[in-house]
Design a protein that fits this description.
Blueprint lengths: L18 H18 L9 E4 L33 E8 L4 E14 L2 E12 L8 E11 L4 E15 L2 E3 L2 E22 L9 E16 L2 E2 L3 E21 L2 E10 L2 E6 L5 E6 L2 E9 L1
Antiparallel strand pairs: 1-8, 2-3, 2-15, 3-4, 4-5, 5-6, 6-8, 7-8, 8-9, 9-10, 9-11, 11-12, 12-13, 13-14, 14-15
Length: 285
Amino acid sequence: MRNPSKVQISPAPATPRGRASRISLSTAAIAVLLQACGGGGDVGPVTVSTPAAVDPGAPSQANVPSASATACNFFGAQGNITRALAVYISNSGDMSQREYLKYPGGPFQGRAVSWVGVGSRPLSGPRLGTGMVVKMAYDYNAATRAITHYGYTSSVAALVGGQVIAGQLVGASLVETESTAVYTPPWVNTMYAMAPGQTLTQASTEVLTTQASVNGTAQPLETITVTNADTVQFIGFEKITLPRGTFDTCKYQDGAITRWNDASSGIEIKTQVNGVTTTLFDLSN
């Protein structure tokens, strides 16, 4: 799994490449299983009330990153930034929150590594109360701008299936997963060293172990081997002006996703995918 920014759980942008998409595939596989069993077999559906949408108010004007875009960074490379809380809004009015965190270094599979994480959750819509957290184990080489990925852990809570009736999400199943992935072997991500116009294809293999539960009922422990191959193009540097401020960004094309990341912090500023545009609404430390 790569890119928690497709946390979209994924950062990741500020998040490792492909990570959120791989987490989505994990929950999607469970969703297919639920559908094949008629909504989860003997596990009954849940009914969730839909809270009122969050009123975003006006964006604050403090803590707007500012830098000349001469190089691209990811969040874990910033030694003086350990936390950022971002609120996003889409062109359909949906809002979400993403928390970027840099953790103290620690062990992973017997190796001393650095840790960075991204947590994501909706702030509006019928699936409030769901979300995901991904923590990436890595090393960063400041001289080459290369990231060595060793693995990640993820926690996901998703409402699968159901339909909204009179403001309530009815018939959905709560799927929760705890996963650990180990890259075999570790892979080196060089996307932040690319020159404008350059395209990069990177491959990795991970052993992914997942413990899932459906509406509180534990499912069998699952271990699978996943092979990833992602192609990303660095379009170039681009300045974006939003109500939140003006940002120097690095623009990437990753399959169907176009992403603009803040050049200095690596935080995602804007994305476009399948006709949906999501932009940064607010940012704080």
